[in-house]
Fold this sequence. Notes:
The structure holds two protein chains of two kinds.
Chain A: E1 2-7, E2 25-30, E3 35-40, H1 50-61, E4 65-68, H2 73-81, E5 85-88, H3 95-103, E6 108-109
Helix pairs in contact in A: 1-2
Chain B: E1 2-6, H1 14-25, E2 31-35, E3 52-63, H2 73-77, E4 83-85, E5 90-92, H3 102-106, E6 112-126, E7 131-138, H4 146-155, E8 162-165, H5 172-178, E9 183-189, H6 192-208, E10 212-219, H7 224-233, E11 237-242, H8 245-252, H9 257-260, H10 263-279
Parallel strand pairs in B: 1-8, 1-9, 2-7, 2-8, 9-10, 10-11
Antiparallel strand pairs in B: 3-6, 4-5, 6-7
Amino acid sequence: MKMCITAKGDTPDAQVEERFGRAPFFLFHDSEQDTYTAETNAFADAAGGVGPRSAQVLIDHGATVLVTGQLGGNARRAIEGAGIEVYQATAGSTVREAVAAYRENQLNRIL
Amino acid sequence: MKIVVASGKGGTGKSTFSANFAWSISRSRDVVLVDCDVEEPNLHLFFPGDTSESEVTVLNPAFDMERCDLCGKCGDFCRYGAIAVLPKQILFFKDLCHACGGCRIICPNEAISETERVIGKVWDAPVDEHLRLISGVLNEGEPNGIPVIKAAKEAAEGNDLVIYDSSPGTACPVIETIEGSDYVVLVTESTPFGLHDLRLAAEVVRKLGIPAGVVINRSDGEDDETEAFCRKAGLPIQMKIPFDREIARLQSRGDLFSVAMPEWQDEFVNLLDDICTRTGGAQ
């Protein structure tokens, strides 16, 4: 299973970013191999339409779970349409901690 | 001659100036006044009367899912994020679409056609024999007024003398209004806020390469800083409208002060002459 965590940095020890579409990085965690791949969000500073375009990145990566802080309306529609489950990360936690919390069913599902 | 009235700061008196300027000069020639402040047009309040209305539409994509194979090329192409290609469906975000038509061209399966969507209207009102008011009106909830501004400008094409009242600010709607004009009148007021935003507006006009002058509205006579800025920026101060109780009283009732105070009609005609001299063209 592939999971995307929005992050302030490009390593698993970076903090989770609360914003989805404008997150600086997307970290993809592969649960079978327990590996992390970082991708710079090309739309972090774009003028608009970042929600749907960021959602497209997740779809292209085949992610089925998203851990982030909050979703805007357009992003929500795209993520929901793609059938991706969304969980809210605990404020201030790292990407690694968020993944552990997800595994232990400690995160709130928001979509 | 196409003259735009802009300001930077909101509430400096652009519409008051535009209405009085257009009405005064139309006593001796034909004038079209265009309200390009499409999010909150209000010039019609000065000129009540009969109005004809036409719709403004944009072209949005429509997807034929029989032909679409979800290749994703349209979503990749759209820089506004208006199309999300999901594993089993396409989502279209109308508020993000800029109606460029690129998705229809890029689609390899001819699965995209275009459909019209109404986003606003243009009001056309003959005020009197020599003055005509055209107003762009953006529908509530629509985020992009540019097509409505374009339509209002288009409705005024073919006339010799057109005054365009812009929205405040320095963003896309203002630039769209200014583009293609011969002269810009920047209306400011004698406050630090008026001057701050005048600087921004003057910079936009300079970058667009269009000659401009300044009108100081509600002048309290202490305009040293504004005057110093204008000198440095090479902007002539072409008129001062004083902070005057009688003007305020007339304005607050929705009246044109130049009707009740006819000496202003000559002032506005002189201003037009000055603009024509500066642009080196006939009216």
